[in-house]
Amino acid sequence: MLSLRASAVAVLVLAAACDDGGAGDGGARDANVVFDAGDCGDAGCAPGLACCAGACVNPVNDPHHCGACDVACPGPSPFCASGACAQAPCNPGQVCSAPGQPLCCGSACCRAGDLCCEVDRGGPSRGPECVAPIAGTCPIGCPLCL
């Protein structure tokens, strides 16, 4: 399991892969960055992300900001897919009843504390996967990367 520091570095690397934030360009803004004069500052959020509660989030997969800021998916195992709250998908025949692995997520059984997330990494979808939460939610991924 990744440490908090490694998880934070992974988020920063993913964010940098999609957006250079206009840094080092004398204040010129990148045309591909969504700017928000609010909590997310001058750098704004990369395309496909939203500024919610001072952080750039992916409203397509974030169970705390599903479809829009502050729309939280209910239940002990919240799941957000395509910006709508839903039950975490479970492939036919998959049963998750082992102690410590109560959540079915596609073809996997998630450990207690993990989330079932669809993380867009560019390219074809790999389907839902079990992930350790990063800042309490699913990784933002890179919604508009190819």
Architecture overview:
There is one protein chain. The chain is α+β, with helices and mostly antiparallel strands and 146 residues long. The protein is built from one helix and eight strands. It has one helix at 4-18; strands at residues 50-52, 55-57, 80-81, 84-85, 103-105, 108-110, 115-117, 129-131. It has a two-stranded antiparallel ribbon with strand order 1-2. A two-stranded antiparallel ribbon has the order 3-4. Strand 5 (103-105) and strand 6 form a beta hairpin. The protein is globular. 29% of the residues are buried.
Distance between the termini: 28 Å
What Rg, in angstroms, do the CA atoms define? 16 Å
What oligomeric state is this? single chain
The parts where pLDDT drops under 50 for at least 5 residues are 1-37
Q: Give helix and strand order, one letter per element, not per position.
A: HEEEEEEEE
Q: Give the count of helical stretches.
A: 1
Question: What integer is the average pLDDT?
Answer: 74
Give the fraction of residues assigned to helices: 10-25%
Task: Compute the number of strand runs.
Answer: 8
> Main β-sheet, in a few words?
2 strands, antiparallel
